[in-house]
């Protein structure tokens, strides 16, 4: 009888749960197993120097291969990882896996000096006291230098605690790590903080790039961001570049680098290796 009651209670509970909440719970349970089951993997999107046309780095982007649902976008699960605190462990895994890939590329002789891999870092992960230690550990266990890493942070991170963020940035800079502001222009107070922040690069959000040709306001915003960055001696990367028209506009506006489907979609580690191998040969004198 108890068993039957238990089942009924469960059914009742499910009935009353919203679709959204139950989906979220399933997702959370599946995510708890994902690290142990090796279901996460990284893809790499090349970043191109606009003047030279060379690959000067890449961004590491996480993917989740769900046993039933296939490959899941980070937009669907990063917020859950953040809300549950699981982002800390997954963030450590990202760092370690990216460093391991870099080491392999160095061993193959296709990693060029000055190249960097951009790592997306969540706010909670960034302010966690153990981050610097985790970074050092990833560097030591894989044998790569911090100079190969660029941490992508967002403006929203600054709203919580600017002082702590800046302190943390200085500690990481001592390891050779540089910083980019991701999705620039979509947060707020950007200009106030930009002056104080030890950042190297501004990544212009793809929402501005998307209509750069058709929308004169977006064009003006992008030109202004690039001009400001150049005056402040900050690097610029345009995100989400999909057409040659967009690229020509960015070049004319003085943007340094870009990433986007025009050059390549995010690639598996193997495909990135092949691309680096073929471009390394091409670029040889
Ligand atoms: P993001 O850092 O702004 O990454 C850029 C997003 O734009 C990526 O989406 C990329 O695949 C996509 N993209 C690149 N080129 C184009 C293009 O030409 N057109 C269009 N329409 N899209 C393009 P993705 O891979 O789905 O990642 C989404 C977001 O998830 C990232 O935005 C980042 O905020 C977050 N994310 C990804 N990997 C990680 C990670 O390892 N840790 C954390 N904390 N967040 C991550
Ligand atoms: Mg990013
Ligand atoms: Mg972005
Ligand atoms: Mg984004």
UniProtKB/TrEMBL annotation:
One of its GO terms (biological process) is signal transduction. Residues 24-280 form the EAL domain. GO terms for cellular component: membrane. Keywords: c-di-GMP. It comes from Natronospirillum operosum. This is cyclic-guanylate-specific phosphodiesterase. Signal peptide: none annotated. GO terms for molecular function: cyclic-guanylate-specific phosphodiesterase activity.
